[in-house]
Design goal:
The complex is a heterodimer. Chain A is of the alpha+beta class. Chain A has a domain at 64-215 and 265-369. Chain A has helices spanning 5-14, 51-55, 63-71, 94-99, 105-115, 141-146, 157-167, 179-188, 216-226, 258-261, 301-312, 323-348, 361-369, and strands at residues 32-35, 38-41, 85-91, 121-127, 133-138, 173-177, 202-208, 232-236, 244-249, 252-257, 282-286, 294-298, 316-320. Chain B folds into 4 domains: 19-235, Rossmann fold (3-Layer(aba) Sandwich); 241-356, Rossmann fold, CATH 3.40.50.920; 392-573, Thiamin diphosphate (ThDP)-binding fold, Pyr/PP domains (Rossmann fold, 3-Layer(aba) Sandwich); 577-643, 2-Layer Sandwich (Alpha-Beta Plaits). Chain B contains 21 helices and 24 strands. The longest helix of chain B has 20 residues, at 216-235. The two termini of chain B are 50 Å apart. Classes of the chains: A alpha+beta, B alpha/beta. Chain A binds chain B through residues 28-31, 33, 35-36, 38, 40-47, 50-51, 166, 195-196, and chain B through 401-402, 405-406, 408, 429, 592-596, 598, 601-602, 633, 635.
C-alpha cells in the first residue's frame, strides 16, 4: 500500500533516524508537531504529498535544484560551496560582543537588518521551557540580544518560521539557523509552485557553522546533573585542540570532555554533509585561533549587500581571513562532507543510493575519491 | 377497584383480568408484584435493567425495598438476605452480570433459601449491547438450579409469579432466563391479583446457613436429590406444551423466543400438519418423561433455541439411553442447521424447517434484496459507532491520544465495559486496547504495571467509568496500591451509569427510588488508599493532555486522574448547551494542506458536518450539544464559541 505523505515521512525519515529536527514539517498544520526533540505525527493526514512531504530535506533533496534556485548555478562538490567573499569580523558594539558568541556578528547583523528594514522580523533559537531550544520571533534589537548565544542542541526553528509566516503578520523574515535548517528553507524554494509556500515571506538567511547538534531531551538531562539550567549563561565548544564542552554559569565555568558529550549527538547529524550552511545568504562561525572573532562567508548578492552596508555603517569590523585559517576551514568542511557521504553509503550499503540526497552518484564518487 | 383509583395501566394497575400492553421485562416485574415480592435488586445491564427501574417507581406504593446495587454479586446477596429472612426477593442481571454473581450463587445453591428467591437473567442474544454472547442456562445445569424460560409476554408474568412458588417449594433459587426480544418486546398481558402482603422477617439463628465445613459434598448429594424432585415437578408444568400432529415428520423442540419463531415458521410454510412443536418452559432440569413421549413419535428433531445448543445437548443425552438401538436425526446449532451464534429470527427458523421438510423457501428474491440495499445506501450511509456530540469521553480520548503520542513510549491503555469501550474504535481514536469484564481494565493495568522487572517499559494507563469504578475496579485498585503497581487510572466520572440509562451508583447522591442518599466520594476513597488523585475537566483538552503528560512522568505506584464532566445526555435534560458554536467559513481551510478536515475527519464529533459543496465545515445545530471542545481542536481557530449563561 502506498503511504500518504505524512506516513512516508514518519517511516522513512523519523523512524530511520534521518530527522534533523529542523522543524520544516511543523508549524503548518495540526498533524506534525515538534516536541522535546522529536517530530511527532499526532494524527494521520491523508493528503498524498502535502507541504511536509515537499519541504522535508531529509526525505529527498536535490542539491543541484536547490543551488540553482538560490544561486543560479549547479551544486559543486567543493569545500565551502558558493562563496563571494571570505572574511573575519566582529561586532563594533561591546555589549553585543559580550553577549554574543565569539565576535557577535550574527547578533549584530540581525539587529542591523531589522533596524535598516532589510527584514521585518527574525526567527532565532532560544532555550524555552525545560532548557529545550525552540524557534522564536524577534522584532527588536533588545529581543535579538536576549537570544544571542549558541545552544548546540537541535531545535525546530523552521516550525517557528512556518507559523509566523502563516500568521500573516510578517512579510520579510530573517532566519538564523544551522545548515540543516537553512537547507530546509532553501528546499522550500523548489516545492511545486501551486503550493501555499511560506518561503515567500523569507527575506534573509544567516547560517551557522555546525559539526553536529545534540539530541535535546537526553542532553538536557545530562546538563541538569551538572548544573542548574537557570544558572547557565552560555555554552561553547572552543576550537580544537581544546576538545571540551564549556558551560559558563553564574558561578564560574565547567568544562566537560567532548567525548562525554558525543553520545548525545543526534543520529541524523551523521548523515549531514554541510558544515558551513551552504545555502544561506551569509554563513557565520567561529574564527579558529582568533579569539573574539567570527568567520563570515558571504554567499549571495543579498548577503553581500547587507554586509557591505554594515561595514559602511561601522556595525562590524571586517578583515581579510588569513590564508592558513581559510585552509583549515576548507579542510574541516571537506572532512564533514566526506564523512557524511560515507555514513550514508554505509547505511544504504550501496554507493548509488544516497538516501535523501538525490545527486549524480558519479560526481559524488569522484568527490569522495578526490 | 375503587372508581378513579387507577391512573395508569402500568405494572401496578390493580385491575385483575385487564389486558394491558407490557414489555416482557415489565411483565416479569408485574409477576413479581403478584407474587408479593418485597425486595428487588440489580446492577443495570441490557436487557435486564428495566426490572428494577420499573419496580423502583412503585416501591413506595408496595412498601418494597428496591436498590441499584454496586454490582451483581452484591445485588444477589441483598436479595438472598431478604429471602433468608423470610421475604420474597428478586434480583436481575444480564449474562455478564451472572458471572459476577456466580460465587455467591454457587454457595446459595448449597445452602438453599427460605422465602422465594428469583434470579432473572437477561441474555443478550446477538450481543447487541454486550461484549459477548453467553447462554446463562449452562449455569443452571452447572449449579443444579431450576431454570424457567418464558416464551410469551403473558408467560413472562405468569412464570415470574410461579418461579417464587417453585423456589419456596424446593427451597432453592429459581433462575428465570429470557432474551432481548422477549424482555424488550411488548405484548398483551392479562393481569392477575395483587396480594396484600405483610412480612414479619426474622433470621432464624437456630440454623446455620452455610455449606457444612469439610462435608460440602453431602450438600451436593442433597442438591441432586432435590433436582430430581424438581424434574418430576416440571413434568406437569403448565409451561410445557406440545402442538402438532401425532408422529410428526419433524419434531421441533423449542424454548423462549424459539416458540414464537417456530409457530410463525410452520404457519408461513403451511406445514402445521407435517411438523409439531414441543415448547418447553421448564428447561432445567429437563422433564424427561414429557420429552421422551414426543421424542419417540419422531425421527427427525430440530432444536430452535437462543444462543447455545442447550436443549439439544440435554435431549441428545436423554435419547442416548432411551430406546436401545434407536437412532434419531438431531438438527440444530450443533449441526449448523441453525446458526450457532448470533440472534435467531423468523427467516433463520423458516429456512431450517423448509430445508428439513424439503420445501423451498426464499424470503426475498436476491435481486430485490440487492436493490433494497442499494437504495438504503443512497439515503443512509453506513456509519461507525460514535460517541454523542459533546461526549466528554471523546474529549478525554483526544487528550489521551495526544499525550501518548507526545510521550512517545507506546503507552498501553486498558479498559473495560461502558460507553467508553468505544475507545477501541475510531470514535475514541483507537486508544483503548483491552476490554474484558467490568473493572478488568484496572486489574489488567495493575498486572502490566508490575512487569518492569522483565524489561517491560511501556507506560500503563487504564480507563474506567464512575459506576464501573465501584462495581469491580476497587478491588484491583486496592491490589495495586498494596503491590505498588505502576499505572494511571483515568476515572471517567460522568455522573451516572450512562450506557444503561443513568441509574444511580454509590457515587451519586440519590438512590434507586429517587430519595437522597449518602454519596461515596471516589477521591477520598483513593486518597485513603494512599493514591494521589488529580481532577481535570476533559472539555479542557489541552490542560487534560498536559496533566496526563505530567503524570506519565511519575513512576512509582498507581495514580488516579478523574475526568469530571457529566454525560452530555444528563446535561441535555436540564441545563442545555455551554456554548453557541459557529464555524467561520473565512478562516476554515477545509481540505487544504494545513488542515485537511481536521474537525470532521479526525476529531469526528457528529455535531460538525462537512459541506461538500462549499468545502467548509459547519456546525449541525440539531446535533451540536454546545460543549465547545472543537474550538480548541480547530488548527485555524475557525470555530468560534460564545459562552451561554
Amino acid at each position: 500500500m502506498e503511504l500518504t505523505g505524512c506516513k512516508e515521512l514518519e517511516t522513512k525519515v523519523i523512524q530511520e533516524n534521518l530527522c534533523t529536527f529542523c522543524g520544516a514539517c511543523t508549524g503548518m498544520c495540526p498533524y506534525f508537531i515538534a516536541y522535546k526533540g522529536r517530530v511527532i505525527l499526532r494524527d494521520t493526514c491523508n493528503i498524498s504529498q502535502g507541504r511536509c512531504h515537499n519541504f522535508c530535506p531529509r526525505l529527498s533533496v536535490d542539491f543541484n535544484d536547490v543551488h540553482r534556485a538560490i544561486f543560479g548555478t549547479s551544486y559543486r562538490w567543493d569545500s565551502l560551496g558558493n562563496v563571494l567573499e571570505v572574511s573575519i569580523a566582529r561586532s563594533s558594539d561591546n555589549a553585543i560582543r559580550s553577549k554574543g558568541q565569539y565576535g557577535g556578528v550574527v547578533t549584530a547583523l540581525i539587529s542591523f537588518a531589522l533596524k535598516e528594514g532589510f527584514i521585518d522580523s527574525a526567527i532565532l533559537t532560544c532555550p524555552e521551557h525545560d532548557g529545550l531550544p525552540e524557534g522564536t520571533l524577534a522584532t527588536t534589537k533588545k529581543e535579538v540580544l536576549l537570544h544571542a548565544r549558541s545552544s548546540y542542541i537541535a531545535a525546530p526553528t523552521i516550525g517557528a518560521f512556518n507559523s509566523a509566516a502563516q500568521s500573516g503578520k510578517k512579510e520579510r523574515m530573517g532566519v538564523v539557523g544551522t545548515p540543516c535548517q537553512i537547507l530546509a528553507l532553501a528546499h522550500m524554494r523548489v516545492a511545486p509552485s501551486d503550493m501555499q509556500n511560506n518561503v515567500k515571506k523569507l527575506g534573509l538567511t544567516i547560517g551557522l557553522f555546525c559539526t553536529w547538534a545534540l539530541s535535546s531531551e537526553e542532553f538536557i538531562g545530562f546538563l541538569r546533573e551538572k548544573v542548574s539550567l537557570s544558572e547557565i549563561k552560555k555554552v561553547d565548544i572552543p576550537p580544537p585542540p581544546a576538545n571540551v564542552f564549556e558551560i559558563y554559569t553564574t558561578s564560574g565555568r565547567i568544562s566537560v570532555p567532548l567525548d562525554e558529550i558525543r553520545r548525545f549527538i543526534r543520529p541524523a547529524c551523521t548523515y549531514c554533509t554541510d558544515m558551513t550552511a551552504e545555502f544561506a545568504d551569509i554563513s557565520i562561525g567561529a574564527a579558529e585561533g582568533i579569539e573574539g572573532w567570527n568567520t563570515v562567508l558571504v554567499r549571495s548578492e543579498k548577503g553581500a549587500e547587507l554586509l557591505n552596508k554594515a561595514k559602511r555603517k561601522k556595525i562590524l569590523e571586517i578583515h581579510t581571513m588569513p590564508a592558513q585559517n581559510l585552509a583549515h576551514l576548507q579542510e574541516a568542511s571537506l572532512l564533514k562532507k566526506k564523512r557524511g557521504l560515507k555514513n550514508i553509503i554505509q547505511k544504504t550499503g550501496n554507493a548509488d543510493d544516497l538516501l535523501y540526497l538525490k545527486a549524480d552518484t558519479k560526481t559524488v564518487k569522484e568527490f569522495l575519491n578526490g | 377497584m375503587a372508581k378513579g383509583e387507577e391512573k395508569t395501566l402500568g405494572i401496578d394497575a390493580n385491575w385483575p383480568g385487564k389486558v394491558v400492553l407490557l414489555m416482557g421485562i415489565e411483565a416479569i416485574a408485574r409477576g413479581a408484584l403478584e407474587a408479593g415480592v418485597g425486595v428487588a435488586t440489580a446492577y443495570p445491564g441490557t436487557p435486564s435493567s428495566e426490572l428494577v427501574d420499573r419496580l423502583s417507581k412503585v416501591a413506595k406504593k408496595f412498601n418494597m425495598y428496591v436498590e441499584w446495587s454496586v454490582n451483581e454479586k452484591v445485588a444477589l446477596e441483598i436479595a438472598g438476605a431478604a429471602s433468608l429472612s423470610g421475604i420474597r426477593a428478586i434480583s436481575a442481571m444480564k449474562q455478564n452480570g451472572l458471572s459476577v454473581a456466580l460465587d455467591f450463587l454457587s454457595g446459595l445453591a448449597y445452602t438453599g433459601i427460605k422465602k422465594g428467591l428469583v434470579l432473572m437473567v437477561g441474555d443478550d442474544a446477538g450481543a447487541l449491547s454486550s461484549s459477548n454472547e453467553q447462554d446463562s442456562r449452562h449455569i443452571a445445569r452447572m449449579l443444579d438450579l431450576p431454570l424457567l424460560e418464558p416464551a410469551t409476554y403473558q408467560e413472562a408474568k405468569d412464570m415470574a409469579k410461579w418461579a417464587f412458588e417453585l423456589s419456596e417449594r424446593f427451597s432453592t433459587v429459581c433462575i428465570l432466563r429470557s432474551t432481548t426480544r422477549i424482555l424488550h418486546g411488548r405484548g398483551n398481558v392479562t393481569l392477575g391479583e395483587l396480594p396484600e402482603t405483610t412480612y414479619h422477617p426474622r433470621f432464624d439463628t437456630s440454623q446455620i446457613c452455610a455449606p457444612p465445613m469439610g462435608r460440602a459434598s453431602k450438600s451436593h448429594a442433597a442438591l441432586h436429590k432435590k433436582l430430581e424432585e424438581i424434574r418430576r415437578f416440571h413434568e406437569a408444568s403448565p409451561f410445557n406444551a406440545y402442538v402438532g400432529p401425532e408422529n410428526p415428520e419433524l419434531l421441533l423442540i423449542t424454548s423462549g423466543t424459539g416458540w414464537l419463531y417456530t409457530a410463525e415458521a410452520l404457519k408461513t410454510l403451511a406445514a402445521e400438519k407435517r411438523a409439531g412443536i414441543l415448547k418447553l418452559g421448564t428447561t432445567w432440569p429437563l422433564p424427561h418423561n414429557l420429552v421422551s413421549k414426543y421424542l419417540i413419535q419422531a425421527d427427525k428433531i430440530l432444536f430452535v433455541e437462543e444462543v447455545d445448543a442447550f436443549l439439544e445437548a440435554a435431549v441428545r443425552d436423554l435419547a442416548a439411553d432411551l430406546v436401545p438401538g434407536r437412532v434419531w436425526r438431531f438438527f440444530g446449532k450443533s449441526t449448523g442447521h441453525i446458526s450457532p451464534f448470533g440472534e435467531l429470527n423468523p427467516n433463520i427458523v423458516i429456512g431450517a424447517i423448509a430445508n428439513l421438510l424439503d420445501m423451498t423457501y426464499r424470503p426475498r428474491k436476491s435481486a430485490y434484496q440487492k436493490e433494497c440495499d442499494r437504495i438504503a445506501s443512497l439515503y443512509v450511509p453506513s456509519r461507525d459507532l460514535q460517541f454523542c456530540a459533546g461526549c466528554p469521553h471523546r474529549a478525554m480520548y483526544w487528550s489521551l491520544k495526544d499525550a501518548l503520542r507526545l510521550d512517545g513510549r507506546d503507552g498501553v491503555v486498558t479498559g473495560d465495559i461502558g460507553c467508553y469501550s468505544m475507545g477501541q474504535s475510531p470514535a475514541g481514536y483507537s486508544q483503548m486496547k483491552t476490554a474484558h469484564g467490568m473493572g478488568s481494565g484496572v486489574g489488567v493495568a495493575s498486572g502490566l504495571g508490575k512487569l518492569k522487572q522483565f524489561g517491560f517499559s511501556q507506560p500503563v494507563l487504564t480507563v474506567c467509568g464512575d459506576s464501573t469504578f465501584f462495581h469491580a475496579s476497587l478491588p484491583a485498585l486496592v491490589n495495586s496500591a498494596h503491590n505498588e503497581s505502576d499505572f494511571i487510572l483515568i476515572l471517567l466520572d460522568n455522573s451516572g451509569t450512562a450506557m444503561t440509562g443513568f441509574q444511580p451508583h454509590p457515587g451519586i447522591d440519590r438512590n434507586a427510588i429517587g430519595d437522597s442518599a449518602p454519596k461515596v466520594d471516589a477521591v477520598e476513597l483513593c486518597k485513603a488508599l494512599g493514591i494521589p488523585v488529580t481532577i481535570v475537566d476533559p472539555y479542557e483538552v489541552k490542560q487534560t493532555r498536559d496533566e496526563f503528560l505530567r503524570i506519565l512522568k511519575k513512576d512509582k505506584g498507581p495514580k488516579v486522574v478523574i475526568c469530571k464532566r457529566e454525560c452530555v445526555l444528563i446535561r441535555a435534560t436540564g441545563k442545555g448547551a455551554l456554548f453557541k458554536v459557529k464555524v467561520n467559513p473565512e478562516k476554515c481551510l477545509g481540505e487544504q494542506c494545513g488542515c485537511n478536515r481536521y474537525c470532521t475527519r479526525v476529531f469526528g464529533c457528529p455535531g460538525i458536518r462537512w459541506d461538500r459543496d462549499t468545502k467548509k465545515a459547519e456546525i449541525d445545530e440539531a446535533v451540536c450539544s454546545g460543549c465547545g471542545v472543537c474550538a480548541h481542536v480547530c488548527p485555524q481557530s475557525a470555530i468560534d464559541r460564545e459562552a451561554l449563561s
